[in-house]
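Render this sequence as a predicted structure.
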Amino acid sequence: MFILNALKRKFVVFFLVAVLFSLLPFLQSLLNNSLYYGLKRELDVTKFSELRLDESAIAIVFFGYLQCGTVCPLQFMNLKRLHDRLEGEPVRFIFITLDPERDDKEKLNKAMASFGQNFIALRPDTRQKAQDLAQIFSDGAAMRPVEGGYEIDHSGFLYVVTGNKKLELIYTSPALDLDRVEQDLAHLIDNIDRKDQ
């Protein structure tokens, strides 16, 4: 009887975990009480002086590093797909390295060129300056030693910023429904266009 109960508990836990994983792509919209799929925020990021956008443009900002083997490749794939879908729209993709020591300007420029013309890389002078930029977005990163070097633990969040330097949306998972992200961005662009008229 005890073994049967233990098996039932394991099955229930396994089932609940499976349900949670299946809900991951929709989790941020379920937790979000707005018309947007992304988490709606209105945070002033004017301290982010490196960001130069036209008033009618938006930027998707991403903090990471080129040697990342976890979330960065997934988010780069998402960003490349969005770039291809949004061709002709006033959307810029800004990658900020958290590892300026290993991500030199040449590597960054080569990587961004492979993604598309609207990709820009920013390379702060030091890791601390990269951390300071991330903190403007209430993000951060931590260096973790590994055999033969280090890795950087970071969120991999995507931040959508308007030309007036307001953080409007956050995407917290690389498991994105790109159709819904595209709808969010179109809605933001429409709102900007209406304000300009």
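Summary. The first strand starts at residue 39 and ends at 44. The chain is about 45% helix and 25% strand.
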